[in-house]
Amino acid sequence: MTYGQLEGLINKWSLDLEDQEKYFLHQATQVNAWDRTLIENGEKITTLHGEVEKVKLDQQRLEQELDFILSQQKELEDLLTPLEEFVKDQSGSVYLQHADKVHGKTYRLAENIDAQLKRMAQDLKDIIEHLNTFGSPADTTDPLQQICKILNAHMDSLQWINQNSGGSLFVEEIGTVIGLLQVYLCM
């Protein structure tokens, strides 16, 4: 081997080494970028998980309020049934005095239910605004998409209840509120 051949080999190896060094630095830069992305996404997932837990708690609270309102509606219906029978049997001023008392009690109960519905509607609007700050769902594994599916199921259940209950005003109002949720969340 001559000196010229040796020098040629050394130059070739030096060029190969420089190419390998550039390739290594490029790969290291990509790995660092991926690492930063993974860390950022991990933080986003943690934040989103916390938000989903809050939404679950809000949903439980809303379900409890719905159950309470349904029980009040049942109580109201139970009060009206005997009154209707009483009206059939009674007449005159005694009936009017009793009817006035019952009417007042029924009116206060209706006002109470209406106030609760308004609070629920405001709560639902607040939840909608809160959820809308996170953007619209992109795929079926997204928690917001899952919430939309739950709301759709609730809407279907309320529609079934409405059809089988003879069109209760309360069920219609709840259906309207859930329909609004679907519009805002599932667009």
TrEMBL record:
GO terms for molecular function: beta-tubulin binding; structural constituent of nuclear pore. Keywords: Acetylation, Coiled coil, Cytoplasm, Cytoskeleton, Disulfide bond, Glycoprotein, mRNA transport, Nuclear pore complex, Nucleus, Phosphoprotein, Protein transport, Repeat, Translocation, Transport. InterPro entries: NSP1/NUP62, Nucleoporin_NSP1_C, TBCA_sf. GO terms for biological process: mRNA transport; post-chaperonin tubulin folding pathway; protein transport; tubulin complex assembly. One of its GO terms (cellular component) is spindle pole. It is found in: Cytoplasm, Cytoskeleton, Microtubule organizing center, Centrosome; Cytoplasm, Cytoskeleton, Spindle pole; Nucleus, Nuclear pore complex. It comes from the Eukaryota. Residues 45-79 form a coiled coil. Residues 1-101 form the Nucleoporin NSP1-like C-terminal domain. Belongs to the nucleoporin NSP1/NUP62 family. PANTHER family: NUCLEAR PORE GLYCOPROTEIN P62, NUCLEAR PORE GLYCOPROTEIN P62-RELATED. Essential component of the nuclear pore complex. The N-terminal is probably involved in nucleocytoplasmic transport. The C-terminal is involved in protein-protein interaction probably via coiled-coil formation, promotes its association with centrosomes and may function in anchorage of p62 to the pore complex. Plays a role in mitotic cell cycle progression by regulating centrosome segregation, centriole maturation and spindle orientation. It might be involved in protein recruitment to the centrosome after nuclear breakdown. This is Nuclear pore glycoprotein p62. The lineage of its organism: Eukaryota, Metazoa, Chordata, Craniata, Vertebrata.
